[in-house]
Specification:
The protein is an alpha/beta fold and about 375 residues long. The chain has twelve helices and 14 strands. Helix 10 packs parallel to helix 12.
């Protein structure tokens, strides 16, 4: 085909990549098959039934009974924004416990909805203690406490024991980012007393990017229903989306039908394997990766007790050009790993073992590449 610029375009051919970075991850063949089906109408009886199935599967994987659980039409950042847009009103005190790049994003988004944003900070590579969180809640008296469960920029998993009880004690809503934990590591939204949570389709669920799972409990619904004005984001307004995803099935926007085909299959695969089996697989493969990297003389950025099984941050040796090595793996071996963000830019590599990609074959492959190729980059 001849384009307007005079260039000739052949049919698309996508290079093969093994995605072992911070996301997306590779998709299971049955997920790709589901995505490739012919679409149906977004009010077709078949699709309406599928919507209910997706909602039920999300509840199971998140371990919640929340009525309002649905995939937002957009990536994980859209689900993050939906969480804030629906419940935050101007002047609400919004406390963010920041320990990485995505905590900063939460604070930025909340400020755009005119919240009174307050923050507490932790070194990138550490987690918050219950005492630190309670001291901040007592000091700022927030309406919301927002936390990133699995911080993709640092590889830290925030311990959740007691945080929900703390928020109930001080009458604030708990918001939890589960973008790099859903479908991969233990998540118990109801038991942890999480009020709102969001995630993405392309990491632990091993579905391409394009949907942002979202959930809110009755406490959060009450906050939404007591708003003094409309939700300031029409597209992400759950009070409107509820009429489409709820029993009324009233049209709101044209849903990404095939993406929901894909996420339905991705969630089904997780439950077919078994949630606990999935979590165990991720942990065992991560342990093998961590031990192998340390055997090669490399240092891991995060202490083992709060280290994410899905995302490992590896300190780049001082005598290595980290970006050059990453490009070498991509261009010559078809393997993607990530670099650092924010404070960790140029200081760490980020290796992801998420969803379908968390398997022994991939662990062996990346360890063998570090063993054989990294010495070539040492100055």
């Amino acid at each position: 085909m001849l384009g307007t610029s005079g260039a000739t375009f052949a049919p698309l051919t996508v290079p093969k990549r093994l995605l072992l970075g911070p996301g997306p991850s590779n998709s299971h063949s049955s997920v790709l098959n589901a995505l490739s089906q012919q679409p149906v109408g977004h009010l077709d009886p078949f699709y309406i039934q599928l919507m209910a199935e997706v909602q039920g599967l999300l509840r199971d994987v998140w371990q919640t009974s929340n009525r309002l659980t649905l995939p937002m039409s957009g990536t994980g950042s859209a689900a993050m924004e939906a969480t804030i847009a629906n419940v935050v009103e101007p002047g609400d005190t919004f406390l963010v416990a920041i320990k990485g790049y995505f905590g900063n994003r939460l604070a930025d988004m909340a400020s755009r909805y005119k919240a009174n944003v307050q923050t507490i900070d932790k070194k990138w590579g550490e987690a918050f203690s219950l005492q630190e969180l309670e001291e901040a809640i007592i000091k700022y008296k927030p309406a919301f406490l927002a936390l990133v469960h699995a911080e993709t920029s640092t590889g830290v998993c925030q311990p959740m024991e007691g945080i929900g009880d703390l928020c109930r004690k001080h009458n604030c809503l708990l918001i939890l980012d589960t973008v790099t934990s859903l479908g991969s590591i233990p998540l118990y939204l109801d038991d942890w007393k999480v009020d709102l949570a969001y995630s993405c389709s392309q990491k632990g669920l091993s579905c391409p990017p394009g949907l942002g799972p979202f959930t809110m409990n009755e406490r959060a619904e009450e906050k939404l229903n007591k708003r003094t004005g409309k939700v300031p984001n029409w597209y992400l307004d759950v009070s409107l989306l509820n009429k489409y995803w709820g029993s009324d099935r009233v049209y709101h926007h044209t849903a990404p039908v095939n993406m929901n085909f894909g996420i339905r299959e991705a969630l089904r695969l997780i439950l077919e394997e078994g949630l606990e089996a999935t979590w165990t697989r991720h942990k065992l493969n991560a342990l093998e990766l961590w031990n192998g990297l340390e055997d090669l003389g490399l240092s891991l950025h995060v202490p083992s007790d709060i280290r994410l099984p899905t995302l490992t941050t590896v300190s780049i040796p001082s005598n290595v050009d980290g970006k050059a090595f990453s490009l070498h793996l991509l261009n010559n071996h078809g393997v993607e790993i990530g670099g650092g963000l924010g404070e960790l830019a140029g200081k760490v590599w980020r290796i992801g073992l998420m969803g379908y990609n968390s398997n022994k074959t991939n662990v062996d492959k990346i360890l063998n590449l570090f063993d054989s190729e990294l010495p070539k980059f040492k100055s």
